[in-house]
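Subject — a protein and its fold
Fields — amino acid sequence, structure tokens
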Amino acid sequence: MDENEFIRVPVLFNIGNVSGVKGSALPNMVNMLVVKNEAGQRKLVVPDSFFDPFNDNLLEKLGAIGFVDPEVHFVNTIETTALGGEAHCATNQKQKPQ
């Protein structure tokens, strides 16, 4: 892949406080999943950052590569983030053999 094929996604991390806690301060939108239904319609499932400028930035970049708003679905993963995890830690997709 070429460098220009990557979409840069804004994130906010804690680099450690007095107690040494490190990790994502907001749900990390890079942990997204593209799913298709039986009709082949795609949906991009993205952790909601709960910070509109980050979400808007991502929607703009996804729009530039052909994803339209109804295809992007933001999901609430704030509890997982608050516990120190990320959405990818619990993301599974059942795939139909081809």
